Amino acid sequence: MTEKKEHPSIGEFKEFVKKHPKLITEVRKGEKKWQELFEDWYLLGENDVSWKKYREESDESESTAEKKSDFMSRMMTAVKSMDANQMNQHLYNMNNTISSIQNLFSTFGLTKGSSSSQSNTPNHPFSFRKD
User: Fold this and answer.
1) CB-side exposure of 79: number of CA atoms within 13 Å?
2) For residue range 3-21, what is the model confidence (pLDDT) as tens digits?
3) Tally of CB atoms within 10 A around 99
4) How far apart are CA 100 and CA 114, in angstroms?
5) How far apart are CA 32 and CA 49, in angstroms?
6) What is the distance between the alpha carbons of residues 28 and 20, in angstroms, rounded to a whole number?
7) Burial 25-60, CB ≥16 within 10 A → b, else e
8) pTM of the full predicted structure?
9) In this structure, what DSSP letter does residue 52 have?
10) What mean pLDDT, rounded, does the chain reach?
11) Tell me: the pLDDT tens digits for 60-80?
């Protein structure tokens, strides 16, 4: 018998599927067909954004590491561009607001130390008597 030689693009597609193992589960679930995936791969190419969700977990962890480093660089840029005097003014305003709220609580007797009505009640909610 003669062996059937496959087209080179089929071999490339097999390598692509190995890099994107979630495609196999999509086909097994019946959500996609191999023919559809091959056509999409052939038309869109291997580097299309639509393939990201089918990549291995290690690729996703690399992208989360990139996101974390991007976040950190944005935070550092924001800290560098802050005005210290303006931040000091905001902190002063917050401190005054918190002090005002604490004064209101103490005026209306809502602080922890002023719970005198609860101190008269017994510690045990159920009183059992011995006969």
Assistant:
1) 6
2) 567 777 888 888 888 888 8
3) 10
4) 18
5) 18
6) 14
7) ebeeeeebeeeebeeebeeeeeeeeebeebbeeeee
8) 0.39
9) G
10) 78
11) 555 666 777 788 888 888 888
